[in-house]
């Protein structure tokens, strides 16, 4: 006669209680603040919303923000992959320090990062003094915005790609070399293909993070309307003018864009993973 199986102890509470706690936390921390934004946005009719968003200053701010975020994301996509590869595949003196430096933008206040970037790239800064004779100016230009966004969002790219590199099967790499694969074939077919979902996640998070960056950018951007003014700063200006519906319109647009991108990235990542599994 077999002994009755003992029920396994639950480390966490059951599904109902866990789901209730999760939903309560999401409502208090995420949905409640967003509901305030949506309430302010609801004060605008469709015509008023279009009037706010079609103004030249708002369109210029959105153009500067989106193009700079796209450029910063492209930079992070390339160098994030290289950094993640070096940190994962090689052992060298100072590796731990380099690994910690990748996470520094997470801990560093963005205002401090902005001040440091200005001190570095201003005409009187270390790098600015070298670039000025060449006619190159970084601070208070569009390129300054790109650098600030890349600085604050690079950890998202590295940390998303790094675990995928750690899971790569080195036996497949050796097999490919044994079968006579060239360096190009090795990179694109053996290494890059399984990393694509993680790269997509990393650059997506980097782009969304760059869209909402504020502290580091306003110090180095110069904040000139129609040239280096970002959308986040324009929201603050509208709040200072007590034009809450206009501020909510710009903020709601950025929120909607970020949400659409995150959903699209999740869908593309799942489909890409399914495709790679089926191909494998």
UniProtKB/TrEMBL annotation:
Record keywords, A-Z: Membrane, Sulfate transport, Transmembrane, Transmembrane helix, Transport
Main location: membrane
ABC transmembrane type-1 domain sequence ranges: 62-265
Gene3D superfamilies linked: MetI-like
Membrane-related topology note: Multi-pass membrane protein
Protein origin, superkingdom: Bacteria
GO cellular component, one term: plasma membrane
Subcellular location: Cell membrane
Positions of transmembrane segments: 21-41, 61-88, 100-121, 141-161, 195-224, 244-268
MF annotations from Gene Ontology: ABC-type sulfate transporter activity
Function text: Part of the ABC transporter complex CysAWTP (TC 3.A.1.6.1) involved in sulfate/thiosulfate import. Probably responsible for the translocation of the substrate across the membrane.
Stored PANTHER family: SULFATE TRANSPORT SYSTEM PERMEASE PROTEIN (PTHR30406), SULFATE TRANSPORT SYSTEM PERMEASE PROTEIN CYST (PTHR30406:SF10)
Subunit (UniProt): The complex is composed of two ATP-binding proteins (CysA), two transmembrane proteins (CysT and CysW) and a solute-binding protein (CysP).
Membership in a protein family: Belongs to the binding-protein-dependent transport system permease family. CysTW subfamily.
Protein name: Sulfate transport system permease protein CysT
